[in-house]
Fold this sequence. Notes:
By secondary structure, this protein is mostly helical. It has six helices and no strands. The longest helix has 25 residues, at 166-190.
Amino acid sequence: MRLVPWWTLVSSGCAPVVLVGAWVIAALLQGPGYEPVTQTISILGADGASGRWVLNGALIALGICHLLTAWGLRAASFAGRLALAAGGVAAIVVAQTPAPIRGGSLGHGFAVAIGFTLLAVWPVLAADRGKAVPWALRPAASITVTGLMAVGAACFLIELQGNGAAGVAERALTTMQSLWPFVVVVSCLRHPRRP
């Protein structure tokens, strides 16, 4: 019996491609006024941004990718799958509550914080202590990845408050969060089948 269906490779693999592709295209559409090192991704999806439709459409697609991956990732525990799916819903909510072009938005900030948190804790919640578990679902790997995501989130908050390289920190964190489901799926597909 397969640990995951083949299509989870597609849904999980599309997530980082869609996310990174969207912020690259949206930044190109925004033009030279956008500074990707210091400015967040949210600015690209803000009201009035030139590439708003690209980024917000990609966030919806990212959310759908996470929902599909969570549905098919049968090898993970239910709590982890639920957190991944809820992270996907949070991405869709972020797209529906864009930040203003200047200033902040409580709704947008809350949706982003919930999404970051869910996507950071899902690896730990998905972990399994069994003997025949794919390596990416083992506690050591799951705890390590969640720890790295927590450090990434702390770096993002520090850079955001200090007017530093918030854009770089956010991109590193969101890339890791969108890529980890793919790594888990690959580890499940490469894991020997159970009789």
